[in-house]
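User: Structure tokens for both sequences below?

Assistant:
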Amino acid sequence: MWTTNAPAVEMPQLFERGGDLISFAGGLPDLSRLPLGDLAGQLSRLTRLGGRTALQYSTPHVARSLLPAINDLMAREGTTAEADELVPTGGSQLGLTAVALGLARPGEAVLCQTPAYPGALAAFRLAGLTAVGVPADAEGLDPQALRDTVLGLRAGGTTARLLYVNPTFSNPTGATLGLDRRAGILRVCRDLDLLMIEDNPYGLLSFTGEHVTACRALDPDRVVYLGTFSKIFAPGLRCGWIAAPRHLAGALRATTEVMSLSPSAFAQAALAAFYTGQGWDDLLAGYRESYRERAALMTSALEHEFGLDGDWSWGTPSGGFYVWLRHRAGADTSGFAAAAAQRGVSYVPGRHFSIDGEHADGLRLCFSYPAPAKITEGVARLAQALSGRRDLAQVAR
């Protein structure tokens, strides 16, 4: 762990539940879509027949039985990975930290699309890296701005070798980089010898079932891809993977081994057993249907409560978990959190997704977890918290 006197990155409180609270804060999946009866039988057989192996320590490699399940998922976005390119992780968060610790040195800069996932910013801070935001335009991260930012950093003596992107249904905005924009960013990476970190928890959760080609598919030697089962299966198993260029996989494997000693053989075996028995198609289709319904309910409720020309604006999601709400006059949304809590609703203020406070006028709403019947009520509560004129005047100052 890299330590300095600088304050630590503050992680938002995401997973508080209970009572009358309607939480739009944490990115929790809708586990009602898991076939728990089938899963219970598979886990029982796994424990009974292979428990002495599955519950033991294991080596820092993806289990051979899990390789087809991972490559099936990655192939839907146009890419695959060989066994020696894969590193198992306890979800994407461990993968982010491993990349930050294993592929960079304290004091270096990591370029980031913003607003940025707070867990990534925290991982970079833990490793002693400095996150630097890259300007965006209407299509997302701007390749020319990336080039100018990197050259400016290097001219000032700062090493910049990593670029972090969450390119598909991003956290927190839900936006997706188009294929041409991905290619343009990768051209800059090749020109300036940057390594892209492609964080992809939501890429398979398109509401239409159509997929955008992964950045790794466009340039596998230039991209470190982070995958996870947390959003497309269940987060409680804490299982994910890194697909890295072969010459970097060894360093990442060594780093993850220090961090966790051993990946969960049981979690890998459980996922492999599920995939062998049922594949991914039905589960992914069920998740997409659930999130499509919830997203439509949320955006409809927002339009009803706020109107399209009021103080707040938002985009219509086409996949993933999130709606990004912004205050047109630039109010810091942290100032509304207490009023929202009093009304029994929670969200994540935009400052958690900023590097230098540049997105404090936004807030993230997660639609994936609340029951459909609660979404409309939750948005109504939120509207009450956000529409008080006295509170608004105080926050805007």
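Moving on to the next sequence.
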Amino acid sequence: MNAAENGMDIDTGTDAATDMEALRERASASLTTARARTTLLTTCVEDPELIAQHSPLMSPLVWDLAHIGNQEELWLLRAVGGREAMRPEIDGLYDAFEHPRAERPSLPLLPPAEARQYAAEVRGRALDLLQAADFHGTGLTDAGFAFGMIAQHEQQHDETMLITHQLRKGPQALTAPDPEPASPFRGPAEVLVPGGPFTMGTSTEPWALDNERPAHPRQVAPFWIDTTPVTNASYQAFIEDGGYGTERWWSPEGWAHIRRHAITAPLFWHRDGGQWLRRRFGVTETVPPDEPVLHVCWYEADAYARWAGRRLPTETEWEKAARHDPATGRSRRYPWGDADPAPEHANLGQRHLRPAPAGSYPAGESPLGVRQLIGDVWEWTASDFLPYPGFTAFPYKEYSEVFFGPEYKVLRGGSFAVDPVACRGTFRNWDYPIRRQIFSGFRTARSETD
């Protein structure tokens, strides 16, 4: 939350200085947290595993590492600091739009030791720049936006690298404690979200990205939404009822896709006798019935919803369920309020390597009682990825604008692999409807009149 939203008068000298220092500390902490995670993800395996491409869908881990450093150099040292390029000859190698992921192993990439050294040198200079930065400017420097953007960018690539670790074959390389055990959820299966207006998006969140802006009014008809994400047990019922073999539950494109690729269960699942097993970060385990289902594509989520006599929520419905406070009529930053996420609110930041049981985190529920809207699993929505009214690309078109259109579906809420700096009630993710390697799940909805 910025100073104005906190009621602070940022025009007074003392408060302005305090606000500036708080922004500087937040930026420094966000960058440091991201780099610690990057280091973990790139030191838990030997160098040959960093260079290898573990799936044609993903880059070699060493590409992500140097790309993180290169983007930091481009936007912080060059764009904000006005510095000369450190390694101009590598810009093209680490341009995500110039080289598709499948081609990246054949590029003359920096070897692991050199990539680490480059990223570390960039970071040292960026932290020096941060200490002298003026956050009262406009554009990239306003409220430290460029530093927040780079912290979010690194955390997004950390999530991408975690996906690569899940796809990687071989023994376990990462460990983390499991979420706290939770009593079986006994609350209502669905919650009624009242109709009427609400404010979608943001114009005040300092580090919000361009596709989250601007704030604008939306009218929403009343609807029911699942209190928790759909669980593995519920999804197994769909499978056992012949869901993957019944064409009427699937869109024509979805039916063609699952038939073409012989898909019969979520990614990483397989049957062993009478039970379902899954592979999770190098370990094979029984599919836990009470966890939100994970690694399903949009087509699978849509088919399950049809089977259940329901539908996927629209992106607008999802955000209203997550942010609208009917008592005040205002939109919160998060379901629980305006405070930054804490461990009791949500499963974020790779603190665990799995979703928490459905119904966990009562402190993080929305005013209407909807749980786990933030963290655990990305949630597919029914909506295409489109700009908001008044959208302006910033600071570059390739972040959002080039992806707008019906080819991509919106996901909301973040997963256990998302850091709090890159997750909020307005944050928008998007991907092709066939994607399953991502940490995606869903919840369903229905209109009030259904």
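User: Anything stand out in the second?

Assistant: The first strand starts at residue 190 and ends at 193.
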